[in-house]
Amino acid sequence: MAPRANWKGFLRLSLVTCPVALYPATSESEKVSFNQLNRKTGHRIKYAKVDADTGEEVENEDIIKGYKVDTDTYIEVTKEELENVALESTRTIEIDEFVDRSEIDPRYLIRPYYLVPDGKVGHDAFAVIRETIREMNKVAIGRVVLTNREHIIALDPLDKGLMGTLLRYPYEVRSEKEYFDDIQDVKVTKDMLDLAKHIVNQKAGHFEPDKFEDQYETALIDLINQKRAGKPITAKERPRGENVVDLMDALRKSIGGAQASKDSKPAKKPRKVASGQKEMLMPIAGKKSAKEAAAKKPSAKPQRKSA
Asked: CA 218, 223, 229, 233 torsion: positive or negative?
């Protein structure tokens, strides 16, 4: 099932307009997630919204936003008042300018989205805008309102659609100077640089995301499966970093290690799983599957004895 659009409106380049929909380009739904439980009972923790002074629970319809101006003073702002801040970008992505891709500092990138025509009309106008950006080899810059906030969005042609990347505002990006000022000015010798370049050449490759494996995610799945099987959990020894005494010697040893790794046979790639953690967390032999367990719910929740 395709994800729901995060935003629907219009894409406009001067007098050329077409209806579009914005979809998230990334997902974290397949990652292992945990619920918070009561250690004594094993029940899930439920969070309630309560009045800070009275301690009474507050219904969602009675909750409004407030801007803090003093210790106990807030300016209340209703949902209707926020909706009345009628920015044009609430319903329209107006392309303001075109810039070179190399001019966009990576620190300003937030997250990617897919922009597609919405409905059966407007495909011609969408194609004109997309191909113009492609032919000019530029990135289109516009504005869009998401979650009651206006964002800068950079539009790039991607196959038959557009990829929209939200950008940060300058006040959201910290200056590097406050972090880099204390870095010592070190003179790197030509011999050290040559050895380091040799290591880079040995490790040179191509960007292939399919080769990447989330090792922490894999370790979490192994941990959960071991606990489901009733196996004992033993702590693994953590790798320890060593102080480099002789930098030239470390570089030479690194070259030898990189060469040995390159000469060895590549490890067999793990089988790819299409639908995420649900297929990776296989039922333990001799126990009921998660589907069978869900079908037969106990009449009362079991109580765990406190330690």
From this structure: positive
Q: Tell me if 166 sits within 8 A of 110, measured CB to CB.
A: yes
Q: Is residue 114 helix, strand or coil?
A: strand
- The 8-class DSSP code of residue 5 comes to P
**CA separation for the pair 166, 153 (Å, rounded):** 4
Does this model's pTM top 0.85? My answer is no
Phi-psi sector, 191: left (phi>0), alpha (psi -120 to 50), beta: alpha
Cα(155)–Cα(98) distance, integer angstroms? 9
The first and second tokens of residue 243, run together, are: 């102080």
| Beta-bridge partner residues of 155 | 140, 164
Q: Which residues contact 226 (CB under 8 A, 6 or more apart)?
A: 233
Residue 70: band (very low, low, confident or very high) from pLDDT cuts 50, 70, 90: confident
Model confidence pLDDT, tens digit, residues 256-297: 766 666 665 555 454 444 444 444 554 444 344 444 444 444
Nearest to 147 by CA among 229, 79, 205, 66: 79
Using CA atoms, how far apart are residues 256 and 278, in angstroms rounded to an integer? 42
